[in-house]
Amino acid sequence: MKEIPSTKSSEIPQFRHSAISPFPSRYDQKLEFILRAAARIFANKSYHSTSMRDISRATNVSLAGLYHYCSSKEELLFLIQDNCFGRVLERLEERLSDVADPVDRLRIFIENHLSFFAANMAEMKVLSHEADSLQGDLYTHVSNRKDKYTTLARGILRAVQDQQEIESIDLTIATYALFGMMNWIYNWYDPNGSLTVNQLAQNVTRLFLGGFMGGSASLETHLKDSSRQAENLSVWRGPDR
Amino acid sequence: MKEIPSTKSSEIPQFRHSAISPFPSRYDQKLEFILRAAARIFANKSYHSTSMRDISRATNVSLAGLYHYCSSKEELLFLIQDNCFGRVLERLEERLSDVADPVDRLRIFIENHLSFFAANMAEMKVLSHEADSLQGDLYTHVSNRKDKYTTLARGILRAVQDQQEIESIDLTIATYALFGMMNWIYNWYDPNGSLTVNQLAQNVTRLFLGGFMGGSASLETHLKDSSRQAENLSVWRGPDR
Description:
Two copies of one chain form a homodimer. Chain A is built from ten helices and no strands.
């Protein structure tokens, strides 16, 4: 996790070490293990219905042990949400850094979002259902990250409209329609089923770009098969339980 | 509400009288008032965090009074979900009954879904977030209605593909992408804001149809301005609180 640029950073919980370090500490590994389990339980039975005792049972970490890694259930929810937005944004900015063409940037945005969240479906459901469960500074911090991500998406869509000289679709509707198409996958998509993430991303890209660009002639040149190597995109490291 | 065609109908709670009667009984009016309030509270603080006491406070109906209208909090959740799917399906089937052209049927499906749920945003959030909160027969009953609705949507999309001789988009992805675009509105759309439901429906229709039909020549003829008269589409009757 990148250092958090906040004047109140001392109040905002964070991993002790950088989450992107290839050599995570034992502490970070254990915290990630706890966060991953917490995300699954929050996704299954909701944040409010989950107790720290449930998380203790699921992880085989004693209650006292859990409080060594976080001060509260709310801090677990914050770390899950903050880590997800942090990682998906970081990965996107890296992939966009040397791409100038607006349609290519949009294609990368869609592929990045879908492949990341297909690998983190429980976390995606928690981001969606528990967006309002945080309070105060923790809520504001995650909310700012989400706004940054949404603004980035909207900017990419505006650049496509400017380049293609199309304006038929309202930009706000287009932005949230795109997020809706992508985020809804936690309700139906099975990452272990017959439909690969590549197929999912290619179909969603074709569906959205086709409608957004209104059959623009340059569309087909952007829809070439862009299959990517499989990567480990889980927001957490370490072995799954 | 239509009579429920279930072999176990005696176990499934329902309104005593038809919900589509223009002359609802006082009992039905009061039950609808309670259900509408319950939907708002479930949407705001989640089903699991809501107590019957919360609903009693919000409605000024005593706890004993509430139990005159429903046997449990779960029954309230069931009636909200069942009534929503029942009403949106009923309205859709009525509007589709004399329309044969697949693209027109798809346009009507989108308009019907968006206008209905824009008028019932709290209920939409409850349908989305509390889909798994019902148990046993109540869960199965709502789940069957939802499957019927999804199958109808998928059938309309398949008919469009057959008519237009297009097959570039996977039908499962297209169906859920469409539901995602539409259902996500509870996260961002303000029915009282500057963007009208008509504008929302027209933009979503253009976005989805454009991508799904891949710039088919016949698309534009279907995208004529189809502004509809404003209707009262709240799933509940009677005065708002």
